[in-house]
Every structure is written in structure tokens, then in C-alpha cells.
Amino acid sequence: MFNEKYNYLKKDRNWKEKNKEYLKELQSFLDKADNIEDESLKSKVVGQMLRCDDILTKLAEKEFIKFYKSGLKNSKKE
Question: Is-above-0.90 flag for pTM?
């Protein structure tokens, strides 16, 4: 069962894109980035933010897995 849930999480990386607050803030960032006149700078800023977002997503998914494993382990004890 754990492997099934873990594989689902690895495949479904859209969990954050379904969050309205995340989408609102992402759109706000992109709107502000659109106002950067220097295209090279704009590209670097957006690219860096996307790399940070990817790292944060991976960290969050690791935490989900850790909490899931912990809950699974604790449920087996009871």
C-alpha cells in the first residue's frame, strides 16, 4: 500500500497547482516580473524563482512521505 501511495505522489506533481492561493501568488509574481524591461534579467529572475519552487516542491514531497511513513508505522503499532 505504501509503494502505491508513494508512486502516486511521485507521478502527481500537480498538487500545488490545484491550490488557489499558490496560483494567485504565482500569478502575482509573474505579473510583477512582466514589468521588468530588461528581457535577460526578466528571464533570469523567473528562471531562478522556478528553480527555487522546484526545490521547495521536492522538499515538501519528502516531508509528505516522511509523515506518511510515520503514520503507517504508528498505525501498525496499535
Answer: no
Question: What's the number of domains the chain is made of?
Answer: 1
In a domain, 63, yes or no: yes
pLDDT tens digits, residue range 22-69?
999 999 999 999 999 999 999 999 999 999 999 998 898 888 888 888
Distances (CA, A) of 69 to 8, 19, 72: 14, 24, 5
Q: Residue 25: which domain range?
A: 20-77
For residue 19, the SS3 value is coil
Domain assignment present for residue 10? The answer is no
